[in-house]
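haha ok so turns out i had the wrong file open the whole time. this is the CORRECT one, sorry everyone. sequence first:
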Amino acid sequence: MKLTILGSAKKQLKGLPKFKQLIISQKIRSLAIGEMVSNVEVLSGYKNAYRVRVGDYRIVYRKTIDEVCVLVIGHRKEVYKLLERLLG
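then structure:
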């Protein structure tokens, strides 16, 4: 499965503490290889959009048959505002 991470999501990931970066990167790799990942929920109001909970952080992504595209990575308080600005 192809993995795409938007430039803004890469920047958001780099802004996190190193330890959180490692944990979130591992979770993203798990998504890309198709492993079962816990804490996945469908986002209402967005087509093919999902979120994964990693502690206080969220990974928001779109999934198709052959691709996972990471849209937003951020703290739970701000991630949905960022998503609204991105997908509006």
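The domain at 2-87 is CATH 3.30.2310.20 (YaeB-like fold).
again sry for the mixup
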